[in-house]
Task: structure prediction
Amino acid sequence: MPTRRLFTCLAAAVAAIGLTQTARADFVIDNFAAPSQAYNYAIAKIDANPYVRTDTLANGLTRDLNVNVLSPSPSNNFSASGWIGDVQPGQNTPSGSIFSMDSDNSSTVMSSLNYSGFSGLLSNFSMASAINLAFLNLDSGNNAITTPVTINLITGAGTLSYTGYAADSNTPFTFSANIGDFIGSGDLSNVTGLDVIVNGSTGSRQAADFVMDDISVSTVPAPPAVVLGLMAMPVVGLYRRLRRSEAAV
Result:
């Protein structure tokens, strides 16, 4: 009976550990909380083309933002506008921490978010499974239902690149680029930079709009079989000792 009760408790503990180890964890690269007072850019009504700014994020990374009107040239006063940072309620846009891009019907606009300053644990993507872009909405614009997305992982041994297409949605969704779909050569344990390009110059859409609210990295969970195997070793030893004790009684 004591042995049976012991194994019931151990089985529950092993099950709990197994469940914990299978959970996926996301590391947020950018939640767009910087700048704390959001900036409303407008090309070319207020800001020059391209609109460029640099911000330091809470995790120590540096973000370089570039919003570029590809056509018409020169851009008109309504070619591109949007927000970057923590938007307060009542500002005629989704409140909260966002990056948005709004193109007029005659303009083709691309945005580029470039991250640098990766070091230590932040630079190790060897357990990464995907790069995730969380959108509140996306409209590909005139005569299109998808928008091209390019992601570059710059490493100490080369660059890994991905290009995919995010589908239109008027509700929140997450676009994920699986690490296994990146091409090129590089060292994922030594990432030095990350580029996220939406509506890039190749295949760009006219009148594309979107609101993004974070960029994150999914990591691969520890394999449950390994955890269970490690748990089994002390359990077997304890079982044998208990059996010997019961036999001696």
